[in-house]
């Protein structure tokens, strides 16, 4: 009778099976039905409460860019008079490109953050030198301009060119974080990446202009950083942040 030998165990450290990293369920993207409800409520609210602002009555990429640069870290009521004054003095990229730098800085006063007019003039000069005094509409080229980041590029594409482009500024990030996540650290890089994916996922195929403007208005007037107006918010029934506070 022949005895069978047991197979030898391989030498060396034991092989460990890698653990699968658990995903935080709070960071899951909303289901299609939830997306449709969010879009419908937001657009209906915007139709009744959206602000009438001068840069919403134009599709001129230069005018849109001026408004977006001015609105960075600045309240709308401070931007309104300066926006009209600026465009009266510098109605085009060409006019801004050749203007004396000290004059541009003086015209910008008193908006503050004085690096912004310098960046705006740099963009104007590059637009004139390389693109015939116009802004291109594609994301990659817009991001090649110094002073145009992901948010501004998305704003230009969706507001000026009516393209399907997501945006994420402070107001939009706060709305999306509160409604769809509700807990955690909103400032983490991983969270910001998720919020960008969320903004892209929620974006409708039509009415992109109104949708993005509505997101900004909701964050600026209702879902504000301090003392949000939850009782009048169109998202109050589905807001995860509000649910966690009750």
Radius of gyration: 24 Å
Give the low-confidence spans: none
CATH architecture of the largest domain: Orthogonal Bundle
- CATH topology group of the largest domain: Endonuclease III, domain 1
Helix and strand content put the structural class at mainly alpha
Biggest sheet overview: none
Number of strands: 0
Q: How many domain units?
A: 2
CATH superfamily caption of the largest domain: Hypothetical protein, domain 2
Top CATH class of the largest domain:
Mainly Alpha
Mean pLDDT: 91
Shape designation: globular
Strand content: under 5%
In DSSP terms, counting alpha (H) and pi (I) runs of 4 or more, how many helices? 12
Could you spell the SSE succession in H and E letters? HHHHHHHHHHHH
The rounded distance between the terminal residues' Cα atoms is 77 Å
Percentage of helical residues? 40-55%
